[in-house]
Amino acid sequence: MIYTLMAGSGDVSDSLQRILSELFQVAESEVDIAPRDTDWDVRNSHASVTCDIDKLEGDLRWEFWIYASGSVPVQPTEGAVAIFLARSINVPVFFPGDSVIPSLYGVATPQGRLSRAILEEPEESDDIVVAELEVPMMEFPGAVIHELSSAAGNWSPEG
Fold it and tell me: What is the 3-state secondary structure (H, E, C) of the chain?
């Protein structure tokens, strides 16, 4: 299964291997983590969980592409992975929402709550901006807070 997540300003470099090992219930040696542009020749080709990391600009600082092979004993939903990561690194973690509305994302808080958000990428920059949230988050003081049910339709971050 493939998971695509984005997170705020936490520092994940030292703990991500342990976090993913716990989440997917595999040994740390079974987890390969590297910057997105790393050559596959230097990666652990036998890892059952791989994670590519990319630095972002704007409100969100990290993007993660996590792949859990079929041999991994636990295959959680994207929302469950976001909650686990948010609790572990103590920052909100975003994941793609309804594919019909590309700017709609689910967001997991460090307290374990799931809600919805609208992300924007202004044309004049590469920054990702958290434009709208359903619940206030001090990390994103510029976001408009309101119910997103009209924008989200039937999509819920709980699945």
Answer: CEEEEEECCCCCCCCHHHHHHHHHCCCHHHEEEEECCCCHHHCCCCCCEEEEEEECCECCCEEEEEEECCCCCCCCCHHHHHHHHHHHHCCCEEEECCCCCCCEEEEECCCCCEEEEEEECCCCCCCEEEEEECCCCCCCCCCEECCCHHHHCCCCCCC
- Per-residue pLDDT at 151: 62
pLDDT at 49 over 90: yes
Distance (Å, rounded) from C-alpha 85 to C-alpha 110? 8
- Measure the CA–CA gap between 159 and 45, rounded to whole angstroms: 32
Do the Cβ atoms of 118 and 103 come closer than 8 Å? yes
Tokens standing for 142?
């510029």
The answer, yes or no, to whether residue 1 has pLDDT greater than 80, is yes
Cβ 66 vs Cβ 20: under 8 Å: yes
CB 27 within 8 A of CB 108: no
